[in-house]
Each structure stands twice: as C-alpha cells, then as structure tokens.
TrEMBL record:
It comes from the Eukaryota. The keyword Ribonucleoprotein does not apply. Residues 1-60 are annotated as: Disordered. It holds the Pfam family DUF155. InterPro entries: DUF155 (IPR003734), RMD1/Sad1-interacting (IPR051624). One of its GO terms (cellular component) is mitochondrion. Keywords: Membrane, Transmembrane, Transmembrane helix. This is DUF155 domain-containing protein. Residues 45-59 have a biased composition (Basic residues). It comes from Vanrija humicola (Yeast).
Length: 315
C-alpha cells in the first residue's frame, strides 16, 4: 500500500493559459546501504499542506503535487520538493525508524532531472534529459522513478568500481618493473571480497537487473519504463561494469597466485634452513661424541700406563 501526502498551493482567480508546465525534479538520492523498509517495494509519499480559506473560482491543487518514492535498495526519488524539504523528510523518516542510516550525506549520489506536462503530446516522451508527460498520473511518475532509481544505484556501483580500479591500477606496472608486489594476503583477500560483493550487488541483490513487479500488474506502463531504461543505457552500463569486474577479478587471481608462490618460496627456504640446522646439529653431535670418546680412550690409556709403572716399581 502507498502512503499519500499532497501539497497544494493557493491560486488566484486568474485563468491559466494552456502551455506545458516546467517542473524541477525529480531529485534522486542514493543513501548507500539504506533506506531499508519493512515493507517490500517502493513507497509513494504525497503531502497536502493546508492552505488558508480563500475565495477562488477554480481549484488547481492537483497541479502542484509533490511526491516522493522510496525504494528498498536505498534510493529515494523526489518530485517537486525543495532540497530543504527533501532533507527534512529523510531526517523524519530516519528518526521514525523507517530506515537505517546509510552513507554520510557527502557520499550520496544525487542526480537531477526535469519534467513537464503537455496535454498536446500523444504519449510520454524523453528528449535531451527532459521528460514530458501528457497527464499527471502518478503511475507515469512511478515508472520514471523505477528506471532512474536503478540508474542512480548503478552510478553508485560505478563509483565503487572506479575506486577499486584506482586501488589496483598500480599493481600491473609494479609487477612489470620490479617483478615483486608489496601486498600481503590479508589486503588481497579484502580486495577480492569487495570485488565479489560488488558483483553480487550488481547482478543478484541490487535490483538493477530486475523488472519491477509494478509492470506485471500494469503492463501498459512497461514500454515507458523500457524506453527510459534504454535512454539511461542501463543495460550497456551493466555490461561494461561486469567487464571491468572480470578484468579486476583476473588481476586479483594473478595476485593471489603470486602471493601463494611467494608463500611457498618462503616455506621452502624455511624447510631448507631447518634441514641445514638439523644437519649441523647432527654433525656437532658426532664431533662431540668423537671428542668425548677420544678423551675417554686417552684417559684409559694413561691409567694403564700408571698401573704399569706401579707394577714395575713394586717388583
């Protein structure tokens, strides 16, 4: 179920000419790992702010609706809110325990788009980052929100991928120049774990490749979602991201082989030194026995000589 909140503004008695209406937004904010909702699927939020009673000929409250959609994989999409209102809503939701605190605000991935309403267009369209809707149907906005939320989440993964590339970019050159790599096993395992986590988020967990359930029940909206998906190049971007993950994965595999060989080389030398020490100990033991037996034989021979001298003197 969707919670609804509408915002309406007072209007004068002037007649409104027929022309497309430009709106700022939607604003898409990714919070990293949050928000995490107890309920599955996006949550749509509308708010109607009370206005003082005023005599007017015609109500245009439906033309000034601010909407927000929250997705379980950590993206919020806002239509028609100011930046301050967006932060207030997110702070209130976090204070109410609607989601867990994710990344710091400085680390948020924020994207801004524009949209207009034009009753003269035959169907919703996209041109030059401008979304044009024929009507104010919230389902159109929800279809748009699904696509751009997936694109925003993909942008987060692309940023993480860039950080991973920056961490590993010096390794091939270091191996080529020096033939050695100053990287221990723990750091290599951390990088491998981070890589596999990113791959799982992109392909299994993040929701980027999944078709939202909305379009199973509202099949007529799927062409709009697919058009926005193609416009934002989500499919090709996922393919490029997976290709980069494969390249970094191959590099980390080589690094692990190098670390294993280095460890085996170290173990081999340890074994050699242990064998050498054992040989030295054995040689020392043999020499000690020979010396001991030599001293003992000399002492026995001296004793025999003394006894012989005494026997001769006794005679």
């Amino acid at each position: 179920m969707e919670d609804t909140l509408e915002r309406s503004e007072d209007h004068t008695n002037e007649e409104h000419p027929h022309h497309p209406e430009d709106h700022d937004g939607p604003i898409i904010v990714d919070h990293g790992d949050g928000p995490h909702f107890d309920r599955e699927g996006p949550q749509l939020l509308r708010k109607r702010y009370p206005s003082p009673p005023r005599r007017r000929r015609k109500s245009y409250s439906s033309q000034n609706v601010a909407e927000a959609v929250f997705f379980s994989y950590g993206v919020s999409v806002f239509f028609g809110f100011t930046a301050g209102e967006e932060r207030t809503i997110m702070s209130d939701c976090e204070a109410a325990g609607a989601w867990q605190h994710g990344q710091a605000e400085d680390d948020w991935e924020v994207e801004e788009f524009h949209y207009v309403y034009d009753r003269d267009v035959e169907s919703p369209r996209i041109y030059n980052d401008m979304f044009t809707f024929k009507s104010r149907s919230h389902l159109f906005k929800l279809s748009l929100a699904h696509a751009i939320a997936q694109s925003t989440k993909l942008s987060v993964y692309e940023s993480v991928m860039q950080e991973s590339l920056a961490l590993t970019s010096s390794f091939p050159k270091e191996l080529a120049v020096t033939g050695h790599l100053q990287l221990n096993r723990i750091d290599a395992l951390k990088m491998t774990g981070r890589l596999f986590r990113l791959r799982m988020d992109v392909n299994l967990i993040g929701g980027i490749l999944d078709t939202p359930e909305l379009f199973w029940s509202e099949a007529s909206l799927y062409p709009l979602y697919e058009a926005i998906n193609q416009y934002l190049e989500i499919g090709p971007r996922v393919q490029v991201l997976n290709d980069r993950l494969s390249v970094v994965g191959d590099l980390l595999e080589i690094i692990h082989e190098y670390i294993d060989q280095r460890a085996m080389h170290r173990i081999t030398w340890i074994i050699i030194w242990l064998i050498l020490i054992a040989c030295i100990v054995q040689v020392g033991e043999v020499i000690a026995r020979l010396v001991f037996h030599g001293i003992e034989a000399s002492a026995v021979q001296s004793l025999f000589v003394v006894r012989g001298v005494r026997a001769a003197l006794g005679k």
